[in-house]
Amino acid sequence: MHADRRWARSAVAAAGAVIVFTTACEGPSASADGDKGNPSPGASAQVTRTHSPPAATKSSPNPGFAAFQGKPCPKLTAVDKSNGYQITTVASPREGITVHPGGEPQTVLVKLCNTTGKELRDIALSAQVEWNYAGERPPKLTVERREAPDGDWHPVELVMANDYQPLTGASGARDLPPHGTRTVEYRISAAEDAPAGQGGFDIHAVRADADPLDMEDMRGGGSGGFPLTTDPRE
């Protein structure tokens, strides 16, 4: 995830907070998917957001949920600790997914792990890909998220940015019990005319009411993800 590189960029962004976080008090709600949350700040001019259609109907549980739920939680790495992270993530499939324009949606299970002995309150999630995921063209991806194994699907605001943007588009805030876990499932599909693309699909866990100008506040969550590819070849 190159978290250290992104935190360096975040520190620069914080220094130029007038540009990056000018709408911190007036941004979109962090509870777009119906869970509790707080407003997330607006993004800089470098951020493009793609919006998903209304939530689809509930579907069957992911067949791999039981096996995935039993996987051990990752430990904090040295980089995680230096960034102040308290949450680690693991995804399945680890190799990521490939979506095809107009093809069937693909799903990934993601588990958040609280590495501390204290409750982490109001942890929201955001999704981000690099600006050049599809050669600087809109990726035309639809992203949804649900609480695994069989919660309702809710649209996710996918953020495209080269800077670390954990609060932009954050939603679905929930408490994470001491040493507890939370498993969510992401469903991703590509439009008929989606361009080819490849890169990391980053998931940021952060307190919904974090102060974007306070690095300690911002570092209380964690970051993880999986490889994502849009391949037009069937």
From TrEMBL:
Biased composition (Polar residues): 41-62
Protein name per Swiss-Prot or TrEMBL: Lipoprotein
Organism from which the protein derives: Streptomyces sannanensis
Alphabetized PROSITE patterns for the sequence: PROKAR_LIPOPROTEIN
Region Disordered: start-end pairs: 28-69, 213-234
